[in-house]
Amino acid sequence: MTAARQRALVAVADTGSVRAAARELVVTESAVSAAISSLARELGVDLLARSGRGVVLTDAGQVYSRYARAMLGLAEEALAAVRSRPDPTRGELRLAAVTTAGEHVLPGVLAGFLRRYADVRPSLHVDRSDLVWRRLEAHEVDLVIAGRPPDHLAVTVGAIRLNRLLVIAAPSVAATFDLPRTPWLQREEGSGTRVAAEAYLQAREADPPRLVLGSNGAVVAGAVAGLGVTLISEDAVSTKLAAGRVVPVRCTGMPLRRPWHVAHWPALPGTAALFLDYLLGMPGWSSPRRRPSSAG
User: Fold this and answer.
1) What CA–CA distances, in Å, run from 47 to 15, 30, 67, 156?
2) Residue 2 burial (C-beta neighbours within 10 Å; 0-12, 13-18, 19+)
3) CATH number for domain 164-257, candidates 3.20.20.70, 3.40.50.150, 3.40.190.10, 1.10.10.10
4) In 121, 125, 169, 185, which residue has its Cα 20 to 30 A from 230's Cα atom?
5) Torsion angle of the four alpha carbons 240, 243, 245, 248, in this order, in degrees rounded to the nearest 10
6) 3-state secondary structure of 85
7) Is 219 in a helix, a strand, or coil?
8) pLDDT computed for residue 295 by the predictor
9) Which neighbouring-strand residues pair with 92?
10) How far apart (Å, rounded) are the C-alpha atoms in residues 272 and 93?
């Protein structure tokens, strides 16, 4: 069961088709099909099934793809740990961050770290909350910068930083804000900020109109344009707040405090540990006394 065969199955699971998997892996479609067929023969189960003009993973394929993802991730993690052991300043740094942290919190920190340790080889995945935690669960990254870790992940929180969620809007919308009637601009499914917004509205038994715009940039642009209000990290709108293009909306219970967390598995490769130490030396970051007890 070679890593190449496992990687082909994971690529089909991620992309939804053999053709897209081939493009991602930069191989031919026949090579992807052959790899998965060989893997299926070794396992003694069907991994793919025909669906219309394409294929889907069978139940066995879905189960095995999750294990394959974890095995591939652990292999990469082991390689990173071994390579960084002689000299962490020359190792690999595998990071993932939710959109706001990846766009507004991490870049400056990472740039400073790489100026100090120029031989470190970094990779950074920026995505919505559920996907970055999935990457950590599969050992595809060493450190995640996001909100509170899900309860089912027995991970270590190595650092935290203040993060405030605000309801913001254009000044004209804020002046006439009405919780049940003013439209709420929302992120895509799987976004931690969207989950927080829905929980906030549910707690107040409010059901205002909703407009799903998807990305951080889209909801902020929509708020600036006067389409409605949105719940967002202060880090993502600090310059627009300072310029007066958006303002905080007066809402009960605001702002919400949802600290940034840097989470990892207990065994941390040397280069990732070096980055965590650097981060803890930056203003605003601190080491928590204990792991948070819920996924709020």
Assistant:
1) 15, 16, 13, 34
2) exposed
3) 3.40.190.10
4) 125
5) 70
6) coil
7) helix
8) 35
9) 121
10) 6
Peptide bond into 292 cis (omega under 30): no
The domain made up of 3-72 is a member of CATH 1.20.120.450: no
Six-digit token string for 229: 């209000």
Locate 114 and state its tokens: 């790489």
Tell me the CATH number for domain 91-161+260-286.
Answer: 3.40.190.10
- The predicted-structure confidence for 159-205, as pLDDT tens digits, reads as follows 999 999 999 999 999 999 999 999 999 988 878 889 899 999 999 99
DSSP code of residue 229: B
Rounded CA separation 145/133 (Å): 9
Domain with CATH 3.40.190.10 in the chain: 91-161+260-286, 164-257
Which helix (H) or strand (E) segment holds residue 26: the answer is none
